[in-house]
Amino acid sequence: MKEYNCNFYEIDFYDSFLEDPIVTGNNMTIRARDIILLTGLLTKPTVTITPIAECLLHFDGVRRSEKKMYEYIGDPAEGKFADPYVLFDGPFEQTPGEREHLELEGVIEKPAAWIAWDIEASAFRLEIPNDVEIPE
Fold it and tell me: Nearest CA to 72 among 83, 61, 64?
């Protein structure tokens, strides 16, 4: 795996699959599948679309991680959901400094649910497979 420097908002998570985070101190890592990298979305007149089958999302200096869970009722393809509930990761040490509010959404498999995830972190890093080439 290699780190790829990108803006968090150049990632499309809509059809992604997310796993529970690994929390170490104030840092958190989420394994994700099927994200779309939209290179140049915020900086260039044209966008390069790169599907990424698997990756790691690293959040440093996390202050808060809140997941709103919408568990599927029956077959997820039917799109029926139970009443939502909220889960928090952590606890995280409340250290000083600025944090960015980052939002992602996708599917978590255990339990089978649609997830809306809000994270406050001081830094974000993306780690992708070595064989994934991102055009400049």
Answer: 83
3-state secondary structure of 45: coil
CA distances from 115 to 3, 20, 85, 90, 91 (A): 25, 11, 10, 17, 20
* Cβ atoms < 10 Å from Cβ of 67: 19
The type of residue at 79 is: G
Report if pTM > 0.70. yes
pLDDT tens for each residue of 14-61? 889 999 999 999 999 999 999 999 988 777 788 888 999 999 999 999
**How many CB atoms sit inside 10 A of residue 63's CB?**
20
